[in-house]
Amino acid sequence: MTRKKYLGLILILGTLTALGPFSIDMYLPGFPAIAQDLKTTTAEVALSLSSFFVGISAGQLLYGPLLDRFGRKKPLYFGLVVYILSSIACAMATSIDALVMLRFVQAVGSCAAGVASVAMVRDLFPVEESAKVFSLLMLVVGVSPMIAPTVGGYVTVAFGWQSVFLILAGMGACILAAVYFGLPESSKPDPSLSLKPRPIITNFLAVIRIPQFVTYALAGAVSFSGLLTYVSGSPLLFMEIFQVGEKTYGWIFAFLSLGLIGASQVNSLMHRKFRSEQIIVVAIIFQVLVGFLLFSGTVFDWLGLYGTIAVIFAFLCCLGFTFPNASALSMAPFSKNAGSASALMGAIQMGLGALATVVLSIFNDQTAIPMAVIMAGSALLALMILLLGRTFIRKNHSVSEEKEMVVGNFH
User: Fold this and answer.
1) 147, 219, 243, 245: least surrounded by Cβ within 10 Å?
2) Where do the TM regions start and end (predicted)?
3) d(CA 272, CA 291)
4) For a pLDDT cut of 90, what percent of the chain falls above it?
5) CB under 8 Å to 256, separation ≥6 — which residues?
6) How far is 171 from 169, CA to CA, in rounded Å?
7) Is the CB of residue 68 less than 8 Å from the CB of residue 190?
8) For 31-40, 78-87, 250-259, 328-337, which range has the lowest pLDDT when averaged over its residues?
9) How does DSSP assign 154-223, residue by residue?
10) What are the tens digits of pLDDT across the range 312-366?
11) How many CA atoms lie within 13 A of 76 on its CB side?
């Protein structure tokens, strides 16, 4: 593979991966304006974010089998068309209930891009290179939280929040064209795979039986829910508690995203000396420490605006190491059913993220304490899952080796 082709694939796969995050981040500065226009509260508007996460989680389970059955590109075309049409419909929403429902449909469309991009990394690149590729994808993905809320803030002020969704529809159309003309089909359709519920469930159960997948997918997802909690709670935190404007909020969000981007690129360099298994443990331990620093600083009110920004920046840096390694380690055992594994991993991530944001909305008391509690708790739970799961993986591996020795001696 030439360097030009390699970079082209990374760019297209990165834009596919970034579509969901861009759809999340770009409308965040418009929360107060949406609440005012639709005669509701920012907490109610945040439910449209939760419904988006639910849509991504459910949609991934739909697209996983489709990607394995029909190849990668046909389901991707379908999802992008759904995304474009629902984005236009979001711009026309006249009630919060309609917006919440349409955001669910928009998410179902966008998650085809996310599932396909992860599966195609497994198709197109060697296993030992996948962690580096995921880090490069995070560099492209990282541009979205830098650009999206900043642009969203200016667009909302100048043209209204509806224009944000029209821009997203245009982005979807451009990505559809890029996929059609620049992305190869990386997996041949497999007509032998059934789309009936029972075989699909059996396939997912086969994925879940892999201890390495369960450990790293679940630990990564719980850790990732801390990020989605921050995203959901940040409009309240910065625009209502700290009283910054839409444009300033966009710049703060962009700056904080540098932590995620920068750490993901340092992670790529660290693979020259360290394995993914080593990096992820250290990253989650630091995430726990930073999470409890955020919690104590919020409860005792000694952080302030700049202190809060600094601590959240550190928290996102930890995620920049955790997420790519968790993804690579989760996908490593799979080749034939990489689409289903990718879908299940994404569903777990977004499902737990949706749960975290719903809990945040339920316990919203107009302070930053619920957000800090969930972020710190997610890091601690992720560490517990990781340590317990790694112990189980080692025991399972030892048992397998013993069985092979017994069989070998028998023969």
Assistant:
1) 243
2) 45-64, 76-94, 100-121, 133-155, 161-183, 204-228, 248-267, 279-297, 303-323, 343-363, 369-388
3) 28
4) 42
5) 145, 309, 312, 313, 316
6) 5
7) yes
8) 328-337
9) HHHHHH-THHHHHHHHHHHHHHHHHHHHH----S---TTS--SHHHHHHHHHHHHT-HHHHHHHHHHHHH
10) 999 999 998 998 889 888 888 876 667 678 778 878 888 898 899 889 988 888 8
11) 33
* Better-predicted residue by pLDDT, 191 or 282: 282
User: What is d(CA 129, CA 271) in angstroms, rounded to the nearest whole number?
Assistant: 10
Q: Cα(first)–Cα(last) distance of the chain, in Å?
A: 44
Contact between residue 345 and residue 213 where contact means Cβ atoms under 8 Å apart: yes
List strand residue ranges (DSSP E) for 141-230, in order: none
Query: What are 264-318's pLDDT values in tens digits?
Result: 878 878 888 888 888 999 999 999 999 999 999 999 989 999 999 999 999 999 9
CB under 8 Å to 247, separation ≥6 — which residues?
A: 29, 150, 153, 154, 157
Residue type, 196: K
Separation between Cα atoms, residue 143 and residue 357, nearest integer Å: 23
| Residue carrying the six token digits 């209930």 | 97
Angle, helix 3-25 to helix 127-159, in steps of 10 degrees: 40
Do 180 and 72 touch, CB atoms closer than 8 A?
no
* Residues 299, 327: Cα–Cα separation, whole Å: 33
- The token duo for 146 is 């830098």
Task: Judge contact between 331 and 401, C-beta under 8 A.
Answer: no
Q: Of how many residues is the chain composed?
A: 411
Identify the helix (H) or strand (E) that includes residue 271: none
Q: What pTM did the predictor assign?
A: 0.77
Q: Does residue 316 contact residue 287 with C-beta atoms inside 8 Å? A: no
Cα angle 350, 353, 356; round to 5: 155
Beta-carbon contacts of residue 267 (< 8 Å; ≥ 6 apart) = 131, 135, 279, 320, 321, 324, 325
Q: 41: which 2 tokens?
A: 């509260």
Amino acid at the residue 330: S
Domains of the chain: 3-184+207-397 (1.20.1250.20)
Q: Which residue has the tokens 């790293």?
A: 216
- Mean per-residue pLDDT, 72-101: 94
Residue 237 pLDDT greater than 50, yes or no: yes
337 secondary structure, DSSP code: T
Measure the CA–CA gap between 60 and 221, rounded to whole angstroms.
14
